[in-house]
Amino acid sequence: RIVYVNGAYHPEAEAKVSVFDRGFLFADAVYEVTAVIGGRLLDFPGHCARLRRSLAELDLPSPATDDEILAIHRELVARNALDLGHVYLTVTRGEADRDFAYPKAGTAPSLVMFTQARASIETPEAERGLRIASVPDLRWGRRDIKTVQLLYPSMAKMQAKRQGKDDAWFVENGEVTEGTSNNAYIVTREGTIRTRALGHDILHGITRAALMRVAGELDLRVEEKPFTVAEAQGAREAFITSAGAFVTPVVEIDGAAIGDGRPGPIARRLRAAYLETAIARAI
Ligand code: PMP
């Protein structure tokens, strides 16, 4: 695999960053993941815009222009002959002597990008639906910034796996915030799609924004309102969205089947409609 590091392309075994990189020492870094289908990038402008916002929120210097970032994405896709999967991008505050205070202005940020091939469209998860375990949301208070501080989500995923489940949903003050790496939704008994409103407590998913548009086009009602685990268990359907999973049905939470325990028709329709429009707009 060919990996991009600060201006150059390297075979992955030769791609290196400093042990003093603040991404490594402080998780002082943000990231993006952009899906690739047929060698083209899905929702790229959205991912670029969110990267800009994450950088600004943390006073991280920008490593490159949007056009340069797009060109690197395309170059990596081409060099790795990537058909299906995603491009991962991280920007760190760069290399500096270890100190909690940010280094003085002028320290160059690090930009690292790589591809991962994934059979993302016809997955067993999309076919049979996900089983979810709820866990307390113990993450920090700025989940809207896409930082690489991913230890707790990783622990939550392992806790779900140990229970024989596929993934975890975080719960705060009795309400679901989001999944470990995805936004969470239910379809109520009335047929309304419900998902938590944007704020500091969840990531502003790029796939979530696309889902809202697609739902509108399908004349499905969406309300931005939180829900409890009990409400999810009593819902008609449930699903998640992310750049990696697109729209994937959820069929169980904390051992209780949702609906008839099989992927619901609305989730399936939304997955197909999302993929169709995202592929049509891919660049
Ligand atoms: N929430 C969290 C916590 C995530 O990590 C992700 C994926 N990175 C998402 C939601 C979904 O965001 P997107 O649709 O932009 O991939």
Automatic annotation (TrEMBL):
This protein's UniProt keywords: Amino-acid biosynthesis, Aminotransferase, Branched-chain amino acid biosynthesis, Pyridoxal phosphate, Transferase
Pathway(s) of this molecule: Amino-acid biosynthesis; L-isoleucine biosynthesis; L-isoleucine from 2-oxobutanoate: step 4/4; Amino-acid biosynthesis; L-valine biosynthesis; L-valine from pyruvate: step 4/4; Amino-acid biosynthesis; L-leucine biosynthesis; L-leucine from 3-methyl-2-oxobutanoate: step 4/4
BP GO annotations: amino acid biosynthetic process; branched-chain amino acid biosynthetic process
SUPFAM superfamilies: D-aminoacid aminotransferase-like PLP-dependent enzymes
PROSITE patterns for this protein: AA_TRANSFER_CLASS_4
UniProt KW Amino-acid biosynthesis keyword: yes
Top class in the EC scheme: transferase
Reaction(s) the record says it catalyses: L-leucine + 2-oxoglutarate = 4-methyl-2-oxopentanoate + L-glutamate; L-valine + 2-oxoglutarate = 3-methyl-2-oxobutanoate + L-glutamate; L-isoleucine + 2-oxoglutarate = (S)-3-methyl-2-oxopentanoate + L-glutamate
A GO term from the CC aspect: cytosol
UniProt xrefs under Pfam families: Aminotran_4
Known EC number: 2.6.1.42
GO molecular function annotation: L-isoleucine-2-oxoglutarate transaminase activity; L-leucine-2-oxoglutarate transaminase activity; L-valine-2-oxoglutarate transaminase activity
Cofactor: pyridoxal 5'-phosphate
Family of the protein in this entry: Belongs to the class-IV pyridoxal-phosphate-dependent aminotransferase family.
Known function: Acts on leucine, isoleucine and valine.
Name under which the protein is recorded: Probable branched-chain-amino-acid aminotransferase
Lineage: Bacteria, Pseudomonadati, Pseudomonadota, Alphaproteobacteria, Hyphomicrobiales
